[in-house]
Request: fold
Amino acid sequence: MSTSLAEGSTPVADAEHGWIRYWPMLWPPIIATIIITTVWESITVYFDIPPYFIPSPSRIFEAFWAAPGTLLWHSGITLLEAIIGCIIGSFLGALLGTGFAYSSLLARGLLPFVIAANTIPVVAIAPIIILWFGHGIESKIAVTTFLCFFPLALNMMKGLQSYDRVIMDVFHVAAASPLQRFFKMRLPSALPYIFVGIKINVSFSIIGAIVAEFVQADRGLGFVIMTTYRNLNMPRLWAALAISALIGMVFFALVSLVERMVIPWHSSMRTES
Amino acid sequence: MSISVTKLSSNGVLRGGVSFRNLSVVFPGHVNHPPVQALDHVSLEVRPREFVSLIGPSGCGKSTMLRVISDLITPTGGIALVDGEPPRKARLARDIGFVFQDAALLEWRSILDNVLLPLEIAGVPARERESRSRELIELVGLNGFEAARPRQLSGGMRQRASIARALSTRPRVLLMDEPFGAVDQITRDRLNMELVQITEKTNATVLFVTHSISEAVLLSDRVVVMSPRPGRILSVIDINLPRPRSLATRDDPHYTELIKFGAAELERGFARNEH
Ligand SMILES: Nc1ncnc2c1ncn2[C@@H]1O[C@H](COP(=O)(O)OP(=O)(O)OP(=O)(O)O)[C@@H](O)[C@H]1O
Ligand SMILES: [Mg+2]
Reply:
């Protein structure tokens, strides 16, 4: 785990290798995927498991390949709802979290409501939100926004309070303004927490969008899952599931990549080998 | 390389004098916690450019004295002054440098950017603050580590960076609260000798808190021995060893004598502590 100066000066060399430097991170999941699909495929074939019960990976891929365009179009809708809801919800949550961090009065007054609202199951609140925001994509974004609000509100508050007290004294002695304290100390200290919140929201936003589509929709992966289930077209349902999982994974990987670039200094970013 | 010219006020008087006059600090208690009298009518005059060490048992108010001068704490009685003016004024004029026991560097900034932080906060133009910080990095012997991150440095090196940062605004008063408390003895000896040279070049008045009587004698013009509950000054020892101090100072028989005397005074402080 020791990060020596020599290691610190390697990025120049890494740049020459390009993506190959990510190889140590890439090969284990790739190998795992190959093994899991092979075992899965063999078991379904060997025990002759009916495809509506557990379809084999090849059947799932066939179901996808039968109409890749429509499935991808539906996925695009869900992805759009998830991303917009994630951004709006995270932003609004971060704003309230900042308010909480700066005003204990505000935190004491509103935090109980936020925690209470956070425990409401999304399936219970989704019909109400859809009633308010209509049958279009807006209501799905609103459900996603609702779900993505809390992780950032709580993590932003915790993050902004997590600064080092001695560093605060350093800023005080240096006669820093409140704005300088925020941007040069508290916000950078909060970044690891902010990324925790965003990573939670990556999963939440896809769940929120799909659940909202379950309640009412004529498009999106949630809609596909609903209709294929009614028609017992299970391989296609599994294909939709696989796509939503894949979206979540790519989305998560992107956020992790951004995190590595933004807070390479943080201890959670140290790779232990 | 000249780091700083002696700071003179407009009428030509040396600056950096620190006064504690009947200073009292009481921390309010809470339920099951009686109020703490951290300082009880403490008076001390520190001359400009003087190096004064504060030593005494834990809880005798050494840190509290530094925190009052840096305007981190408002005294409950008496006054503290920097060149005849309230600490707040000196702080806002960026005339106070503070080195904490913990280097307290921003881990997302390079060493250079950490050292120039106070100048950045003060709104000093980028080019100027950078060249000033490079000078200081050289002064504290961190050349070559400008781009390094704090976590890549040893504890002693981080503390050097912290000293450079405290000196960046050319403070009149440098406050150091057990700056070498967490480094090993050999590093500590070396840092002590470097501190002798640094303070000679910077011309700042230094208030230095330590638990080591030998360190205090080696570095100081005067050593202030304190006792706790309530925090008071027990005695002030003049260290009339020749300057500049060096490793040879330790061979001076008077040095050993002063340490013995200081240790005995310190013992009195601890004895009072037990009652
Ligand atoms: N913020 C605070 N609130 C309440 N009590 C405090 C506070 N800061 C210090 N004290 C108390 O005031 C007394 C003096 O504290 P101070 O930190 O100045 O001692 P010190 O001489 O620096 O001790 P040490 O050698 O352990 O650093 C102690 O009894 C301490 O518990
Ligand atoms: Mg202390």
Remarks:
- The CA atoms of residues 54 and 168 of chain B lie 24 Å apart.
